[in-house]
Specification:
Number of helices: 5
Strand content: under 5%
GO molecular function, one term: DNA binding
Structural class: mainly alpha
Radius of gyration: 15 Å
Helix content: 40-55%
Protein name: HTH cro/C1-type domain-containing protein
Largest sheet: none
InterPro entries: Cro/C1-type_HTH (IPR001387), HI1420 (IPR014057), Lambda_DNA-bd_dom_sf (IPR010982)
Length: 101
């Protein structure tokens, strides 16, 4: 008989260690943007900022570290200005594409 594993017993996944290049970051953000979910985007930007160093990203974005943590919580809905500044600090930009290419 096989032992059943409960989902709650599994460790949570942390994407930050895998976001080690601009290509990986761009691919991650592209996939996240397809979900069209502001809270998910905030969480993804938080993953990337943690991978790059929250203090450094906050400094480059011109906001405090505490404000950055607050803005990029998984349940937040950051302002576009904040998203734009964080993306610039991360060295990426959001790009619009036609839905029906």
């Amino acid at each position: 008989m096989t032992k059943r594993i409960k989902v709650d017993d599994l460790p949570s996944f942390d994407a930050a260690p895998y976001l080690d290049s601009e290509v990986a970051i761009a691919a991650y953000l592209t996939d996240i943007l397809e979900a069209n979910d502001a809270a998910l985007l905030a969480a993804a930007l938080g993953d990337i900022a943690r991978a790059r160093g929250m203090t450094e990203i906050a400094k480059l974005a011109g906001i405090t570290r505490e404000a950055l943590y607050k803005a990029l919580r998984p349940d937040s809905a950051p302002r576009f200005d904040t998203v734009s500044r964080v993306c610039a600090a991360l060295g990426v930009r959001l790009v619009a594409q036609p839905i029906h290419a």
